């Protein structure tokens, strides 16, 4: 995070943008006496004081790293000095909500790790400071484009005078060889922003492309991602899933009770775990979704037996690894179908495990409400996109290498 101290001086402040440090503003709040409800918990977090302001100057080198530790309250939408929300014309789909995540802070962290302590030395050595150019975004493969709005935020953060135009929006299909956007302005600023903008776009587009294919195949079930995201990029990854036509699972540990196998083992079984959850939520006056993982039909029946006799907050049952791989590459979904039939729409259902692009259609036909896939975000194949000033030469090279 960079604090501007004067027109020619910028100092990197030590930042707390890791998943652990992002929790710091909330840790003191999260106990039974203070977390009276989810709403109260989120409002306390949201109203935490912003302790440090962001700025990024691509032409000034930050000379040192301060040892001061800042705990930064975060929001999902980047901010401007005037009205609080960054105006992005290409913001077709907003990022998912998160009480502590700062999209602008993530952008600045990416720019800062690129700039290091000297800035872009190659740019300083080869490009006149006042030179202006126009660069074009080129697609080198077919897919769903995502991260256009985020790339625009990157350019705006580096240099608000840059002019960015797009012929596609987030979620649109692009084809190999097409130009789908351009940026005009100072060459220094464009080159500095280029790799960070592309890194976000390529990752997000890869996620969106796979999500779109999985979501179409899963119909009528909905496709979900998981928490298996790149550390620090949770919101960005989940935003890409939304752009690709999927839906978001829980954002983190704070917004849904999800009783998994380890919780069940420690609690002493499915019934004990559910009782504990219901008692905890009631005693703390918290209302939120509750999901429990089941691995066998016996566990499904145990959940149904408990909920038929007790008032419960349970909203969804996960049916984990009930899709059985077969030697020929097919899958056996008979156990999953039986579980869905037992639940009989009393609760939402979610299939998990052995979900691939090849198997998701068959899983989606079993009647499950949702299908979750960690592969959407933990095994990303980035979509090949480039930003070129000399587009004719770039296209010539791409044709030579069969990439356009």
| Count of extended strands | 16
Shape: elongated
Spatial gap, N to C terminus = 38 Å
As a percent range, the share of helical residues equals 25-40%
**Class by helix and strand content?**
alpha/beta
Low-pLDDT stretches are 1-56, 58-86
| Adjacency order of strands in the biggest sheet | 8-15-14-11-10-9
Largest sheet: 6 strands, parallel
Q: What is the arithmetic mean of pLDDT?
A: 82
- Please give the count of helices: 14
Order of helices and strands: EEHHHHEEHEEEHEHEHHEHEEEHEHEHEH
Round the Cα radius of gyration to an integer and report it: 24 Å
Kindly estimate the percentage of residues that lie in beta strands according to DSSP: 15-25%
Q: From the structure provided, what is the oligomeric state, counting identical versus distinct chains?
A: single chain
Task: Tell me what you see in this structure.
This is nicotinate-nucleotide diphosphorylase (carboxylating). Its EC number is 2.4.2.19. Keywords: Alkaloid metabolism, Glycosyltransferase, Pyridine nucleotide biosynthesis, Transferase. GO terms for molecular function: nicotinate-nucleotide diphosphorylase (carboxylating) activity. Residues 120-205 form the Quinolinate phosphoribosyl transferase N-terminal domain. The protein is α/β, with parallel strands linked by helices and 404 residues long. The protein has helices at 24-27, 38-46, 103-115, 121-126, 148-158, 187-218, 234-243, 261-267, 270-283, 297-309, 334-343, 360-364, 375-378, 391-400, and strands at residues 2-6, 9-12, 132-139, 143-144, 163-166, 173-174, 179-186, 222-224, 257-259, 290-294, 316-320, 324-325, 331-332, 348-352, 370-372, 385-388. The strands form five sheets. It has a six-stranded parallel beta sheet. α3 packs across α5 and α6 (187-218) packs across α7.
